Amino acid sequence: MKPTSLLAIAAGCLIGWQTALAATVAESVEISDPYVRMVPPTAPATAAFMTIKNTDGKDHSVVSAKGYINKITELHTHIHDNGVMRMRRVEKIDLPAGQVTALQPGGLHIMLINLNEPVKDGQKYQIDLTFEDGSTKTIEAQGRPIVPPRNGMGAGSKMGMGSGLGMKCGGMMKGPGAMSGAQLSNGRNSNPMRMVMHANPAFPNLTGIAVKNAAELNLSAEQVSKLKAWTAEHGDKMQKMFQQVDALEKALIQDALAGQPKAELMAKFEKTLALRKQIAATKIDCRDNMKKVLNAEQFAKLASIYPMM
Computed over its alpha carbons, how large is the radius of gyration of the chain? Predict the structure, then answer.
């Protein structure tokens, strides 16, 4: 055999040996601060967040995930559509070469749907991340409470963070940096945040969120039609009650400053409580109607989308 042939064979063996020892994507990825957000005990879903660093010189991606505290696991992100934040499922999460990718509230995250048990503070939950080469990395994400909003901003948000961040006193934030809480509305209110507070924050406005996220929830045209019909029947009544509460509470402030007697103020205050009770009852009826129109999986997804909006 010629010397050149021997060299070629040796070189080929060396390349094959190096390829066999090449790191998988899972080995080239570093995970930090993984956690699962705590939700109320009856909540059917939650989300997992973390920071992923791709230490490789090539772009990679997370193509799927698996949680062990739940039945369905999906990769999700948030998009801003005409000033409204909506959650969308994605096929993969891109990991640019040499960069850090944050999975965080209001952005990319891993949805854990149909929980088998409540998430507990400090408890660790196993999650498997699968990458485009088929390799898998298992992490332990710690249960963590939702961080209370600071100055009206969402958890983890900072003033001035993101492009196009705008704030108007008494108004609604829009643009890529918009505050997510301002979008929790039924799509009919001129001032969603204030009106939702008047509606009673203990009960969510679900119909508008469901319709706006119809694609993500896999709603049929018939389901959307039924939801819109419910809104058409009850929406104007709800809107009027919101406005009445708003007007009554403003009047109460003025009357209190004007020195009106306590008995008269309390009598007027009782009217606001009666209106809030009607609003709460109607919203519970809305939820019950929603559970009739949506199947169990769709409602579970809706319940997981709502806190993320």
Answer: 25
Identify the pLDDT of residue 149.
Answer: 39
Of 92, 101, 44, 35, which Cα lies nearest the Cα of 72? 44
Are 185 and 301 in the same domain?
Answer: yes
CA proximity to 139, closest of 268, 33, 64, 291: 33
State how far Cα 153 lies from the chain centre: 15
Name 120's Cβ contacts closer than 8 Å, sequence gap at least 6. Answer: 38, 143
Q: Are strands 29-37 and 136-144 parallel, antiparallel or unpaired?
A: parallel
pLDDT in tens, 68-105: 999 999 999 987 766 666 778 899 999 999 999 999 98
- Alpha-carbon distance of 256 to 125, in angstroms, equals 52
> Residue 212: beta bridge partners?
none
Higher pLDDT, 49 or 276: 49
184 is written with which tokens?
């929790």
For residue 129, what are the domain limits? 26-144
CA distance 246 to 275: 11
Task: Please give the Cα distance from 92 to 60 (Å, whole number).
Answer: 10
Same domain, 122 and 50: yes
pLDDT band, very low/low/confident/very high, at 225 (cuts 50, 70, 90): very high
CA–CA dist 148, 143 (Å, integer): 15
Token pair 């209370």 in the structure block, residue: 148
Nearest residue to 57 (alpha-carbon basis) of 18, 93, 95, 21? 95
How many domains does one find in the chain?
2
Residue 110: pLDDT over 60: yes
Per cent of the chain over pLDDT 90 is 36
Q: In whole angstroms, how far apart are CA 213 and each of 62, 88, 90, 107? A: 24, 8, 14, 16
Do 120 and 222 lie in a common domain? no
Q: Distance between CA atoms of 33 and 184, rounded to whole angstroms?
A: 28
